[in-house]
Amino acid sequence: MLIDPLKATLLVVDIQEKLIGAMSDPAGTRARARWLLAATAELQLPTVISEQYPQGLGSTLTELTAAAPAAQVVSKQHFSCVAAQCLPASLLEREQVIVCGMETHVCVLQTVLGLLGLGKQVFVVEDACDSRTVANKAAALARMRAAGAQIVTREMVVFELMGSAAHPQFRHISKTYMVGEQP
């Protein structure tokens, strides 16, 4: 199945100030998540950003909210966005949810399993997810795949959202996000 821009939304899980430094690839995660948010914002994909206990872990990284200024930010204490019941109706009404964030083996995993339990088609953006250890991330991706989630990359998401080189944003997106060294 392909990502359909009329059926999809992006959910960015817990990429927060006080948590990012503990990740296995903090600089890469920041850059790749910002790339994904900026590209999908240009394609006008509805976006939700969750924050795990922001009083303790801080807010979402400023460069991420700046890349997607129309994104709705929700907070939670449950690890799963589904269990926290913090997801807006606009996200829950859509059939497909594209998910990235951290930690892959905790909040991302539990949210993805919850979304699958709701009957959603879930696409996990592997290169925009992170955990404290590579082993935890790998185990979570394998478990999500086994549960029925599609494991994708940022470029797969963007090209599926455009669908064709005839898309009105294709030239701009290609020149802005697909040339030179990518994060």
UniProtKB/TrEMBL annotation:
InterPro entries (UniProt xref): Isochorismatase-like_dom, Isochorismatase-like_sf, Isochorismatase_domain
Pfam families for this protein: Isochorismatase
Please, which domain of life does this record's source organism belong to? Bacteria
Ranges of residues in domain Isochorismatase-like: 9-155
The record's annotation in Gene3D superfamilies points to:
Isochorismatase-like
The name this protein carries in UniProt is Isochorismatase family protein
Q: Which organism is it from?
A: Pseudomonas shirazensis
